[in-house]
Amino acid sequence: MDIKMTSTTFEVPGYRVVRGLGVVKGITVRSRGLAGQFAAGLRTIVGGKIHEYVVMCEEARSEAFDLMVQHAEEVGANAIIGIRYDATELSENMTEVLAYGTAVVVQPA
After folding, report:
1. Cα separations (Å) of 8 from 4, 48, 82, 95?
2. Which CATH superfamily is domain 5-108 in?
3. Per-residue pLDDT tens over the stretch 39-65
4. Are 66 and 80 in contact (CB under 8 A)?
5. CA angle at residue 94 from 71 to 102, to 5 degrees?
6. Cα 31 from Cα 57, distance rounded (Å)
7. What angle (nearest 5°) sits at the alpha carbon of residue 29, between those of residues 27 and 35?
8. Roughly what angle, to the nearest 10 degrees, separates helices 34-46 and 51-74?
9. Quick one: which of 106, 101, 98 has its CA closest to 7?
10. pLDDT tens by residue, 79-92
């Protein structure tokens, strides 16, 4: 089944949950390369947005989300509700990003 809908709430307007399939998750661990760390280090001196880390974070969230969707498809869901993200710094330059939610089967209300 393909995931048609995702939501941070626990409902999908116009649909009703007919079956809950449990928690699904996607996890990735990312680190910034030496060149990116150097460039980001220079930016911290002058202040402002650190583009290198913004890009890394967006890529990590996107990858974790895609892995969560894949997990939901594997268990037969067509939607994921209650989506959340979590991040943990594993070391100075390494971060774990987790996307999780509840896989469900929904039908039009």
Report:
1. 14, 30, 4, 23
2. Hypothetical protein apc22750. Chain B (3.30.110.70)
3. 555 556 666 677 777 888 899 999 999
4. no
5. 25
6. 10
7. 150
8. 130
9. 101
10. 999 999 999 988 77
Based on its alpha-carbon atoms, the radius of gyration of the chain, rounded to whole angstroms, reads: 17
What span, in angstroms and rounded, lies between the C-alpha atoms of 32 and 96? 12
C-alpha torsion sign, points 59, 64, 67, 73: negative
pTM of the predicted model, to two decimals?
0.84
2: closest CA among 99, 107, 74? 74
Q: Tell me which residue has tokens 């460039």.
A: 39
In DSSP notation, the chain reads ----EE-SSS--TTEEEEEEEEEEEEEEEEE--HHHHHHHHHHHHH-S--HHHHHHHHHHHHHHHHHHHHHHHHTT-SEEEEEEEEEEEEETTEEEEEEEEEEEEEEE-
| Domain layout of the chain by residue ranges | 5-108
CA angle, residues 64, 77, 1, in degrees to nearest 5: 100
